[in-house]
Every structure is written in structure tokens, then in C-alpha cells.
Amino acid sequence: MSREMVLDPTSPRPSGEETDKHLLDAIQSGDAVERTQAIAELYERYQLILWKFICSRANTEQDTEDLFGEVWSVFLSKIEDFEWRDDTIAADPLRSYVMSIADRTVKIYHRTIATQNTVESVDEEHEVELLALQRWLDSRLEGSNADRSSLKKRADRLLMETLPCLRSKVQQRVFKLAYFGRLSNQEIATTLGLEPGTVRVYKSRAVKALRKLLSDVEL
């Protein structure tokens, strides 16, 4: 489905068309054929307004397609239990119901994206922290007139020799996996059975402790 397919959802329905309540009754109480036909009619009735709603809020067309499918799947899984109430303030209860599912789904989608962006941003900050430690060590060792490869090897050796001075064994393992193993926070969390946030804390503390310990060492 493309964006060009989105029509005006407020356009009047053809005369003689089954009401939502009749279609709902067919789905909940009709035979298999009636149920299939009613679902198909509801799909035709709401696909455009759903697509327009989701398309205006999703970041990509692929996301729109995925969200549309998810909304319709949830709607179908719950429609058997939907209770039509004539006393509701909504002029079109079924339309309000399907749009409420779409609204919740889109909100979850945006919360998920925000969480992913936050995690990625934090992970990048910790990668910078490791790089800063490496550069700090390199700058202290540059007076030895060694080439870059030798500097890196000596810096790595100093870190390995200093690691046992960290009080926490977990800090040691986290740092080894992050600095020498080049594993991401998620990969370390999976390896050690920790939460990614806990890994970030251990890594940050290890970096700070190592820098303090090496500050007191004559290089």
C-alpha cells in the first residue's frame, strides 16, 4: 500500500452498506462464510483511515506497513470479545476501538525508538570513554620514542598488569571483554548474565579506577 492510496476517510459510505454493528454481529455470531465476509468488509472500510493515521506518525514506509499489520492483527484477535454499547459517547464505537488500538501501537513504537536511541547514545559515550583511556596512556608513553604498534602493545600490557588491582572481579571481566574483546554492552551482558545498564556502570568504574592507578605509576 502506498501513500497515494490514502483517500479521505470522512467521505460518506455507500447507501445500503451494512452497519458496523451488523458486521460485528456476523463476526461474533455468524457462520464461517459470514464471518469471513464481515472481516473483509471491515478491512475495506478501515484500511485507508488506519493507513493514513499510521503513515503520518511512522518514520518510514516499512514501519508503516509493519505497524498497520500489527494493529489489524490485534484488532482481529480482540474483536470476538468486543462489546457493542449503544450508550457510548462515541458515534462509531467500532471505529473508535480500532483507532484506539492504532494509537496505542504507535505510542509503543515511538517509546521503543526513544529507548533504543538512548541506549545507543549511552553506549557511544562509553566507547568514547575507552578510547579516551587508550589515548591518555599513549600520550604518557610517547616519550619512549617507540612506534605506534609498540606503544599499543605496551599500553595493553600495562592495563593487563593493573587489572588485578581492581577490587571487583566483575569489573575486571567487564573491562577485559570491552577493551580487549571489543564486545558491546549487550554482548557482555549476555556473556556474564548481567543487565546492559549494570555492564555500563562496571565498565565506567573500571576505566576511572585504572586511570587513577596508572596515574601513580612511573612510565
Strands, helices and their partners?
Blueprint (H helix, E strand, L loop, with lengths): L19 H10 L2 H24 L5 H18 L14 H49 L6 H15 L6 H12 L4 H8 L3 H20 L4
Helix pairs in contact: 1-2, 2-3, 2-4, 3-4, 4-5, 4-8, 6-8, 7-8
Report on the structure:
This protein is mostly helical. It has two domains: 82 residues, no CATH class; 97 residues, Winged helix-like DNA-binding domain superfamily/Winged helix DNA-binding domain (Arc Repressor Mutant, subunit A). It is built from eight helices and no strands. It is rod-shaped. The N and C termini lie far apart (65 Å).
> Looking at CATH, which topology of the largest domain would you report?
Arc Repressor Mutant, subunit A
Mean pLDDT: 80
The CATH class of the largest domain is identified as Mainly Alpha
Described by the principal axes of the CA atoms, the overall outline is rod-shaped
Radius of gyration: 29 Å
CATH architectural type of the largest domain: Orthogonal Bundle
The total strand number stands at 0
What letter string, H or E per element, gives the SSE order? HHHHHHHH
Low-pLDDT segments:
1-17
Number of domains: 2
**Strand share of the residues?**
under 5%
Distance between the termini: 65 Å
Give the CATH superfamily of the largest domain: Winged helix-like DNA-binding domain superfamily/Winged helix DNA-binding domain
Helix vs. strand class: mainly alpha
Helix content: over 70%
Major sheet: size, sense and barrel closure? Answer: none
* Number of helical regions: 8
Query: What oligomeric arrangement do these chains adopt?
Result: single chain
